[in-house]
Design goal:
Elements: H1 3-81, H2 87-170, H3 173-185, E1 191-195, E2 198-199, H4 208-216, E3 221-222, E4 229-232
Parallel strand pairs: 1-4
Antiparallel strand pairs: 1-2, 3-4
Helix pairs in contact: 1-2
């Protein structure tokens, strides 16, 4: 194989690896931020439940106070029953007492709803509080792992970039210019394999003479359609059923 062609094939592999590593390196901060946001949301939800529980307790106390005030009114009205002088006043007083007792029942229903809500909130708070430390530990461990991966990817990229410089130094300027120009025009893919008479990148049939020359791997040749640099890999012979070639 022509030395430049061999270097170009490796150069493309190196560039693809660098692009892959860059994607990983760039994505890791967002992954870390997502983990931190999940923990922050968990803590925020816990704090909101605590605030709601405090508000619930205040509301229950106010409702209990309302019931107490109404009970005191009822007690006074019952004492006044013995002081009324007509049946009409007596019936009016009884109706007022019934109305206040109905109000107590409404408030008691509200109080019951508040108590049920308080039980649910307390259960959530207890479960969340017991999970909080383990969630913090899980997120911290995951972030540490991601940061370690990112550092490893950065080091690997530096190693691959150093290899890229070595390949660059081994290639002549005309070949490098051809590679970089094609790479820029073809979304990073400047070198393609020729197989079965086709350019595998654009799937266009090569001229027979070009294909035969490409198969020698002794020259820098390009696809007439997509301008990618072509190379050929000898197919591995298929084994027969008996295992013989």
């Amino acid at each position: 194989m022509h030395p430049d062609l061999k270097n170009l094939i490796e150069l493309q592999q190196v560039d693809q690896k660098i692009a892959e590593l860059a994607t990983l390196i760039d994505s890791l901060p967002a992954q870390i931020q997502t983990l931190q946001s999940q923990l922050d949301e968990f803590i925020h939800a816990l704090e909101e439940r605590k605030k709601r529980l405090a508000a619930n307790q205040k509301e229950r106390k106010e409702l209990e106070g309302e019931i107490k005030d109404i009970q005191e009114k009822i007690s006074k009205h019952k004492d006044q029953l013995f002081q009324v002088k007509t049946n009409e006043q007596y019936r009016a007083m009884l109706k007022e007492i019934e109305g206040e007792e109905a109000n107590i029942r409404k408030i008691e229903d509200q109080l019951l709803e508040e108590m049920i809500e308080a039980e649910d909130i307390q259960k959530y708070i207890q479960e969340a509080a017991s999970r909080l430390e383990s969630e913090k530990a899980r997120v911290a461990s995951e972030i540490k792992r991601l940061e370690s991966e990112r550092q490893g990817d950065i080091q690997e990229r530096e190693r691959v970039q150093a290899r890229r410089q070595e390949i660059h130094a081994a290639l002549g300027e005309p070949v490098l210019n051809l590679y970089e120009r094609t790479r820029a025009a073809r979304r990073g893919l400047a070198v393609a394999q020729a197989r079965d008479g086709l350019c595998t990148a654009c799937n266009v049939l090569l001229r027979p003479q070009v294909y035969n020359e490409v198969r020698t791997n002794e020259a820098i040749l390009t696809c007439d359609n997509c301008s990618r640099i072509l190379y050929y890999v000898e197919p591995v012979p298929a084994e027969t059923a008996g295992g013989e070639l």
